[in-house]
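One record is kept unedited as follows:
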Amino acid sequence: MSVDLSALRRPDGYTGHTRIEVALVCRRPTSVVRLELVMGGEDITVCLDGRPLVVMARLPFITWLWFGGDYRCGGLLWAVHDGRAVLSVDGQEIYEVGGDALTHVASVV
């Protein structure tokens, strides 16, 4: 099944360059890190605590936000486990992406 997402409307005031930060909680050991997403045109640069990790294409990430499942890009895996959105970095650290954070990300991407 293919889904045409070309009709998705960008947020009002979208300039093509937006930066947002959200806090993520690491499951073990319990810690909080800062996830930064920098939107530039059709790309999204992902940084964790100021360290650049990967540049993702915007459309596949939007598809994941809408439909869930797994989205792998470089060393990142965005997934839904037990009804919760999680981000895995290099298959080692797993961070929960809280509902408020996910809503905020979805509203800007």
Notes: Residues 17-108 form one domain. Strands lie at 17-26, 31-40, 43-48, 51-57, 71-73, 76-81, 84-89, 93-97. The two ends are 23 Å apart (CA to CA).
